[in-house]
Amino acid sequence: MKITIIGGGIVGALLAYELSRYAVDLVVIEKKHDFGLGVTKANSAIVHGGYDDPPGSLRAELCYKGNQLYEKLAESLGIPLKRIGSFVVARDIPEEMEKLSELLKRGEKNGVDGIEIVEKPFLEKHEPHLSKEYKYALHCTHTGITEPWTVALAALEAAEKAGAELLRGDGVIGGEVSKGNVRSLELESGRIIETDLVINAAGLYYHEVANSFGVSTPQVYLRKGQYVLLDHKASTMVNSVIFPLPSEKGKGKLVVPTVDGGVLLGPTSENMPDFTPEDVSTTLEGIKEVIEAGNELISNIARPNWIVKSFAGLRPETQEKDFFIENSNTLKNFVTVGAIRSPGLTAAPAIARYVIEEILEQRMSLDLGRQKADQVRTLKSFRVNESYLKEIAARVKDNEKYGRIICQCNQVSEAEIIEAIRKGARSIDGIKFRTRAGFGRCQGGFCTWKIAKILSRELNIPLSEVRVNEEGTVLFDGKVRV
Fold this sequence. Notes:
The protein is α+β, with helices and mostly antiparallel strands. It has twelve helices and 23 strands. The strands form six sheets. The protein has a six-stranded mixed β-sheet. Strands 14, 16, 17, 18 and 19 form a five-stranded antiparallel β-sheet that branches. It is globular. The mean pLDDT is 95.
């Protein structure tokens, strides 16, 4: 059986990883120039606890399951996972205490373990910089943080090693349908992909892909979240994920440590009046809102000299505010995995298994063949910044490029950048998301030029063809002097 997955974000990537255990042929198609650069790259990067989602929803069913699957995923794929825990904080006000109790009950209904309401002494011990007005909190021990794009890239690397074909920079524009089945897909390049099964995991564009094949989906709405990234110095003021009480708009504006030592504030939760999936602009009003909310939780954490950058991400959702995971009732071999809003990152491993076990095997009665004894594992990438001097010295002895630091902020060596190119990086962002070069305090101000020269050399292309990401984002258009 040949299965084609449309979309190389975290859901498509983990579907490919899970399906690589079976005796099937896999193709993953991503229209962007690299994987994990849509919804996957711009979110809070939290492995949520599972206590917030409405009982009975697909979100509630899959969130906690996904959380529990991350441990094995981290071991198998070499991805970062830190179980730093979380606090949903409340003041000593009857209305807020009632909401906190309701959240605890909701978590218990969802079958979540490891949650309890704690009081001020516990909070002061674990989060000494938390605003003094907060007296109580719902504490969850298994909340974690990760790097979403790293999860997607590692999962696809493993799937490729197991035999999957990965296509980038080539979107689906149509296909042949015959007798209630999709027989083939046509790509922008003109290539035709014959297929036995299509899984549509196209992120913000899932409804467009579905509708192009006559498959109906619920009305899609976009919600924008604006964020502020703080310098590593801010990490001394927070140890866990700090949530305000949730509202109808979502989980609220949080304070979140990042796996590489920074701190994230946000997001806002803004309904987009039109379907504008490329609009990831930020606003002064939104950034002020995020900064004020951060300072309200952790007093003075958003200091002006600690602010590194702002950015925004989009997520698709329906009026039901739940995941939309369905096999088509008009096409026999078409499955849509869409409206993957929060907690999509957390649920993604469970979503992949749900699609295989519930949709493909149960509802569609497909025989995916025998399972392979072992999935391909991927080794954790060597990082100079995370290694002991003895380890670095041994690497430098074999390859002097490990001693040549290109990104000073995050201590990324030339050898790491070359390895990222070997694994598929073809742009500045491709290097950034595989190595963290350019993610630091200077945001690539000092290393981008060096990275561009390495890309030019290793890919054997002129500097004028080195891109930041998609077409039209070249850094240089010619020489200033010869």
